[in-house]
Design goal:
Chain A: It comes from Olea europaea subsp. europaea. Chain A: This is Mediator of RNA polymerase II transcription subunit 8 isoform X1. Chain A: InterPro entries: MED8_plant. The complex is a heterodimer of chains A (545) and B (207). With 545 residues, chain A is mainly alpha-helical. Chain A is built from 22 helices and two strands. Chain A has a two-stranded antiparallel sheet. Chain B starts with a helix and ends in an 8-residue tail after the last helix. Chain B is 24% helix and 36% strand. Classes of the chains: A mainly alpha (545), B alpha+beta (207).
Chain lengths: 545, 207
C-alpha cells in the first residue's frame, strides 16, 4: 500500500515540480508507456475495494457467521487481478521513477536514508564482490575480450531463461484469473452431453436409493458361479438361494438321497424335499414322480388355522381327493420352506419313513385288496398308513392295533371316501371342523384315539378346533402322547407344524406352547415320532402343560 | 476419473485424514407380505475391506417431512444400525425376508470431525449380473461415481449437524453440488476447471 501510495505521490510530484523544463520530455516519453493519471485512479479504486472487503470481513467476524467462501475467493481474485495489472504497467517504467515517501516522519525516518542511498548495504556489497570474484576467477587466464565474450554469453543465456520463466508465469496467471472470471473461456458442456450426464445421474440415484435396475429376474437368480469368500460360509453347502420375492416359482434341486421306490407315489411326493419351492406359488414340485394333478388345484395355503377363509376353503372343496391333495401340497410347501438343516433331517426322516413303508407295504396291499380303484384314494390311505407305520416300528403291538383299526376303519368306510378323507384331513387341517364334526358317528375308535391324542395337548382345547367330546376318551393316552410327542428333544428335526404361517418354520418346532401355531400335529409330525422313539419317555412330561 | 482424483485431493485437504478404502457388499432385503403390518426393508452391509468380513445391518426409516424439512438443505432420517454376525443373512431369510437387490460399492471414504462426525464416501456403485458374484460386478453408471456425505445426529442436536454438513458441502462447491437423495443436481460448470486446478502441481498458483 505504501508503495502504491508512494508511486501515486511520486508521480504527482514529478508532474508538478519541474513544471516547464522536464515536464514535456518526461511526460511524453513516459505517458506513451504509462498513463500516470490512470494509474493513480486505479490505485485509488483498488485501495477502496480492499478496504471495503476488509470491513466486510470485520462485520462477518463480529457476527460470528460463516463466510461464503465462494464470494470471498472471487472478490479476492478480483482485487488480485487488478493489483497485478497495475504492477505490471508500472514495471515497464519503474526504472524512470524513484519511489520515496513524500514526508519524513517517524515511520520512515530510520529507513529513508537507506532507501535513498545508492551504495549497497555492506552485506550486499560483500556478496556482490564474492560473486564477481567467483565469476571472473575461471577466466582470469584468458584475454579480456574472451572474458567479456563469455560473460556476455552467460548473461544472454540467463536472460533467455528468465524471460521464458516469466512468460510462463504470466500465462498461467492470466489463465487462472481468466477461468475465474471469464465464463467464455470455460469448456462448455453441450446440451446433449449434459442430458446424458443427467440421465446417468438419475439412473445412479434410483439404483442406490430404490434398487432400480439392480433386480435380477428369477431365472438368473441361481448361483452359478462360485460364491465370494464372505458368503461361502453364510450359505450351507447344500443350500441354494432361498426366498426370492420373484414369484416365478423357480426350483433349485438339491440331490437328496431319497429312495423313490415307495409303492405309493405319495411317498414320492413327500420325499421330494429336494426341490425347494421358491416363492409362494403352489406349483407342483417338478421332477418328482408325483401325479401332476397335484399342481394348482388349490392355491390357498392355510395361513391361519382358524381363519374363516381356510375353513371355508375346505368346505368349498368337497372332493376328498382335492382335500388330500391340498394337504399334501401344504405339507410340501411347509417342507420346502424349511431351512436346509431341517430339510436334511427331514430327508433322513423320510428315509426312515420310506423304509418303514417298505416294511409295512403289506398293509397297503391289504388296502389294495379292498378294491379301491382310485389311485389317489389309495395314496391317501397309504399315506395314512404312513402315519401309523412309524409308531408301528416303535411299539409294535399297540401300533398294530392301530393299524388294524385303521384298516378296519377303512374297510368300513371304504365306500365313503369323504369320511376317510375327513379323518385324514382331521389330522392335517384342524380347520376342517365342520367336516369333522359331521363325522362323529364313525366307529373309528382308534382314529378317534389319535385325534384324542391330539386333543390331549392343551392347545386343542380351543373351541374352534371343534374336537367333539366323543373323541375324548383316551385309552391309550400313553401311546398317544408318545406318538405325538414332538419333543423338545427333536428340535432339530421338526417339520414346520403349522400350515398357517409360512414364515415361522423355525419357531414352531417343538414348542407346543405356541398356541397359534401348533394346532395340528399333522402327518408330518407323526413321521417324526419314530425318531423320537428313544425320547418318548423324556419328552412326555414336557408336553404336559 | 480426473475429477474423482481431484475430489480426493480436495477432501484430503479439507479433512486432514487419510482416505480409507471402501468395499461394501450391500444386500437389500424386503419383508414378505405376511410379515408385519407394512413391508419393511433391511439392508445388510458386508465390509469386504477388513481382513475378516464384518457385517452390519441397517434399517433406514422415514425421512423428516413437513415444511421445515423442505427448508433444511440436508435430508434428515432415522437410521438404525448394528453390527451382526455373518449369520444375519440366513436369519433374515428364515424370518421371511427376501433378497430384493444387491450392489457393491467400491471407492474410498473419509471420516473426520468438523462440527460433527462427518463421513464422506466416494464410490462407484456396481451391480452384479450374477447372483452374489461380487468379483464380476460392473458399474451401474460407468464413469460416474456417487458422493455421499453423512453424519450421525440425535434428535436434539440435529440442527447443528445439519449446519455442519451443509457448510462442508459448500466447500465442495467448485467441483460438485450435493443434494438430497431425491433431487438431482447435474454437473457443475466449474468442475472441469476446478479439477484441473486441484490436480496441478502445487495445487495453486502463487502470485
Amino acid at each position: 500500500m505504501a508503495a502504491v501510495d508512494g508511486a501515486a505521490t511520486g508521480v504527482q510530484d514529478q508532474q508538478q515540480q519541474p513544471p516547464a523544463r522536464a515536464v514535456e520530455r518526461l511526460n511524453t516519453a513516459v505517458q506513451q508507456q504509462l498513463n500516470l493519471e490512470s494509474v493513480r485512479t486505479r490505485a485509488n479504486s483498488l485501495y477502496k475495494a480492499i478496504s471495503r472487503i476488509l470491513e466486510e470481513f470485520d462485520a462477518i467476524s463480529r457476527a460470528n457467521a460463516v463466510p461464503k467462501w465462494q464470494d470471498v475467493v472471487s472478490q479476492f481474485s478480483m482485487v488480485n487481478l487488478e493489483l497485478f495489472n497495475i504492477v505490471e504497467d508500472i514495471k515497464n517504467v519503474s526504472k524512470s521513477f524513484v519511489v520515496h515517501p513524500r514526508n519524513v516522519n517517524a515511520e520512515n525516518a530510520t529507513i529513508l536514508p537507506v532507501m535513498l542511498s545508492s551504495k549497497l548495504l555492506p552485506e550486499m556489497e560483500i556478496d556482490d564482490n564474492t560473486k564477481r570474484e567467483q565469476l571472473l576467477q575461471s577466466m582470469q587466464n584468458m584475454p579480456v575480450s574472451a572474458q567479456i565474450e563469455k560473460l556476455k554469453a552467460r548473461i544472454d543465456m540467463i536472460g533467455a531463461a528468465c524471460e521464458s520463466a516469466e512468460k510462463m508465469i504470466a500465462d498461467t496467471r492470466k489463465a487462472y484469473f481468466g477461468t475465474r472470471q471469464g465464463p467464455t473461456i470455460l469448456p462448455t458442456i453441450d446440451k446433449v452431453q449434459a442430458a446424458k450426464i443427467q440421465e446417468q445421474e438419475n439412473l445412479l440415484r434410483s439404483a442406490v436409493n430404490h434398487g432400480e435396475g439392480l433386480r435380477i429376474s428369477g431365472d438368473q437368480r441361481q448361483i452359478t458361479s462360485t460364491l465370494p469368500v464372505h458368503l461361502v460360509d453364510v450359505f450351507a453347502a447344500n443350500d441354494g438361494p432361498q426366498n426370492y420375492s420373484d414369484a416365478s416359482g423357480m426350483y433349485l434341486k438339491n440331490t437328496p438321497p431319497l429312495s423313490s421306490t415307495s409303492n405309493n407315489s405319495q411317498g414320492n411326493v413327500l420325499q421330494a424335499s429336494g426341490a425347494q419351492l421358491l416363492g409362494r406359488s403352489a406349483a407342483s414340485p417338478s421332477g418328482a414322480t408325483v401325479n401332476t394333478s397335484f399342481d394348482n388345484t388349490t392355491a390357498s395355503p392355510l395361513q391361519y388355522a382358524n381363519s374363516p377363509r381356510s375353513s371355508a376353503n375346505m368346505m368349498n372343496t368337497p372332493s376328498p381327493q382335492q382335500q388330500s391333495l391340498q394337504q399334501l401340497q401344504q405339507q410340501q410347501l411347509q417342507r420346502q420352506k424349511m431351512t436346509p438343516q431341517h430339510q436334511q433331517l427331514l430327508a433322513q426322516q423320510q428315509f426312515r419313513q420310506s423304509s418303514m413303508n417298505m416294511g409295512q407295504s403289506q398293509l397297503a396291499q391289504l388296502h389294495d385288496m379292498q378294491g379301491q380303484g382310485q389311485q389317489k384314494f389309495q395314496q391317501v390311505i397309504s399315506h395314512q398308513h404312513m402315519q401309523f407305520s412309524q409308531p408301528l416300528a416303535a411299539q409294535q403291538l399297540q401300533a398294530r392295533q392301530l393299524a388294524s383299526g385303521a384298516m378296519h376303519m377303512n374297510q368300513n368306510q371304504m365306500t365313503q371316501g369323504n369320511q376317510l378323507s375327513r379323518q385324514l384331513n382331521q389330522f392335517s387341517s384342524p380347520a376342517n371342523n365342520a367336516m369333522f364334526n359331521s363325522a362323529q358317528t364313525t366307529p373309528s375308535q382308534t382314529i378317534s384315539n389319535v385325534s384324542a391324542m391330539m386333543s390331549s395337548q392343551p392347545l386343542f382345547t380351543r373351541t374352534q378346533f371343534g374336537m367333539s367330546g366323543g373323541n375324548r376318551n383316551l385309552p391309550s393316552q400313553n401311546l398317544s402322547d408318545q406318538m405325538f410327542n414332538m419333543g423338545a428333544a427333536n428340535s432339530g428335526g421338526m417339520m414346520p407344524i403349522h400350515q398357517q404361517q409360512q414364515h415361522n418354520s423355525q419357531g414352531a418346532f417343538g414348542n407346543m406352547q405356541q398356541s397359534g401355531q401348533n394346532l395340528q400335529p399333522n402327518m408330518v409330525q407323526m413321521q417324526n415320532t419314530a425318531q423320537n422313539h428313544p425320547n418318548f419317555q423324556q419328552s412326555r412330561p414336557q408336553n404336559q402343560q | 476419473m480426473q475429477h474423482v482424483e481431484a475430489l480426493e485431493i480436495l477432501l484430503q485437504g479439507l479433512c486432514g485424514v487419510h482416505r480409507e478404502r471402501l468395499r461394501i457388499h450391500e444386500l437389500c432385503l424386503k419383508s414378505g407380505p405376511n410379515l408385519g403390518v407394512a413391508a419393511s426393508e433391511v439392508r445388510l452391509l458386508c465390509d469386504l475391506e477388513q481382513p475378516e468380513p464384518t457385517w452390519t445391518v441397517r434399517h433406514i426409516g422415514g425421512a423428516m417431512r413437513g415444511a421445515g424439512a423442505e427448508q433444511i438443505p440436508v435430508l434428515v432420517r432415522t437410521l438404525n444400525e448394528s453390527k451382526v454376525s455373518k449369520n444375519a443373512l440366513r436369519f433374515f431369510y428364515s424370518l421371511g425376508y427376501k433378497l430384493d437387490h444387491e450392489l457393491l460399492r467400491v471407492g474410498f471414504a473419509f471420516h473426520f470431525q468438523k462440527g460433527a462426525q462427518i463421513t464422506v464416501t466416494v464410490s462407484s456403485v456396481n451391480k452384479m449380473l450374477k447372483l452374489h458374484a461380487t468379483d464380476e460386478a460392473v458399474p451401474v453408471t460407468p464413469g460416474i461415481q456417487l458422493v455421499e456425505v453423512t453424519a450421525p445426529a440425535s434428535s436434539e442436536n440435529y440442527t447443528e449437524v445439519v449446519v455442519a454438513v451443509s457448510s462442508f458441502c459448500e466447500y465442495l462447491a467448485p467441483l460438485l453440488h450435493l443434494s438430497k437423495p431425491g433431487v438431482s443436481t447435474g454437473v457443475v460448470p466449474t468442475a472441469a476447471a476446478a479439477a484441473a486446478s486441484l490436480m496441478s502441481d502445487g495445487g495453486g498458483t502463487t502470485l
